[in-house]
Amino acid sequence: MKKILKKISETAIKQGEFSFTTEQIETKWLGNQPATSAEIHEAEIRLGVTLPADYQEFLLLTNGFTTPNENVDPSFSKMSDVAFLKDVDPQLIEIWTEQIELLDVGIKLARSIVIGGLTEEQYFLLIPPVIENTDWEYWKFASWIPGEDPYQGLENYFINVLDFLKSA
C-alpha cells in the first residue's frame, strides 16, 4: 500500500493542479506521521471493534492522508478523529432509514465508522461485519454519487484514486 500512496502523492504534486503545503511538496508525501500501535489499540477500545488489517497497515504508514482532489475523494482522518457515523451525522442515517427501499443502506450506515471526509462532501466508511470472521465493507459515500460506492479494501480504493489522477 505504501507504494500506491507514494505514487498518489508524487503524481498529484507533479501535476500541480491542487494546493499542497510546502512540506508536502518537499517530501512528496500527502500523509502524516504514522500512528503507533498503542494509538490504534486505544482507538479500537474507544470504538469497541478490532479494525481490519489493511486499515491498521494504512495507519502504521500514515495517520491520515490528504486527498489530492477534495471534490472527488475524501481525505483520511487522523485516528483521534475517527468516529461512528451515528455520532458524526445522525441526520444522514435518519434520512436513509426513513424510507423502506433505503433501509438496507441505512442499517449499514448506522453501524459504519467514518475514517475519511469528516468536513468534506463525501465520507469514506468502514462497515463492521455483523457476523464475526466475515469481511468488513469499504464505502465512499456521498449524496451526489448517489449513495454508496463500495470497494474491495483500502488498496483497491487507492488504486482507483491513482487511476483517476493519471487520467486527469
Concise overview:
Residues 34-167 form the Knr4/Smi1-like domain. The chain is α+β, with helices and mostly antiparallel strands and 168 residues long.
Which structural category do the helix and sheet elements fall into? alpha+beta
Mean pLDDT: 90
Quote the beta fraction. Answer: 5-15%
Query: Helical residue percent?
Result: 40-55%
Sketch the topology as an H/E string, one letter per element.
HHHHEHHHEEEEH
CATH superfamily: SMI1/KNR4-like
| CATH architectural category | 3-Layer(aba) Sandwich
* Tally of distinct domains: 1
Please report the distance between the alpha carbons of the first and last residues: 22 Å
Q: Using only CA atoms, what is the Rg?
A: 16 Å
Annotated CATH topology: SMI1/KNR4-like
State the oligomer.
single chain
CATH top level is: Alpha Beta
**What's the number of helices?**
8
Largest sheet: 5 strands, antiparallel
Uncertain segments: none
Number of strands: 5
Tertiary shape = globular
Give the SSE layout:
Elements: H1 2-15, H2 22-27, H3 37-47, H4 53-61, E1 83-84, H5 85-88, H6 90-98, H7 103-111, E2 113-116, E3 123-127, E4 137-142, E5 147-151, H8 154-167
Antiparallel strand pairs: 1-2, 2-3, 3-4, 4-5
Helix pairs in contact: 1-8, 6-7
Q: Can you walk me through this structure?
A:
The two termini are 22 Å apart. This protein is of the alpha+beta class. Helices cover 45% and strands 13% of the residues. It has a 5-stranded antiparallel sheet with strand order 1-2-3-4-5. The protein has a single domain, classed as SMI1/KNR4-like, CATH 3.40.1580.10. It is globular, with a radius of gyration of 16 Å.
